[in-house]
Known about the structure:
129 residues; mainly alpha; two-stranded antiparallel sheet
Amino acid sequence: MAEEDRYSVAEFARRYKLSEKELPAFCELMGVSQDTVLTREEFKGMLARFESSGGVEEPPQPTQEPQREVKEEEVAKEKKQPLSRWAQERKLTRPRVAVLKNAMGWDEQSKITETELQAAINKHLLNKE
């Protein structure tokens, strides 16, 4: 029975869903090679130490930086402009602007974001919610 419970580090890593990117760091930190044969209990102990050392937490860091960049871009897109300027940029006719002003309670100088304008257009001019 004990014979069946012995596998290489690489095999245990595959079975315990340790990614291929994490495997070299795991081997270096634990002082073993991918070909080293261990028992299941030995590998579980090493895996617990590896996870508690923060070795598993390295991959999320690069994904967090691009998310910040996206948020900054979204903020830049969400600038507020007066309704009159949006009407010029979007080439909205005077009757359509009048409908928006009446329905939303806006005036020519009401500062709104593009998202707010699009939501109002969808709801009151295009009847889409």
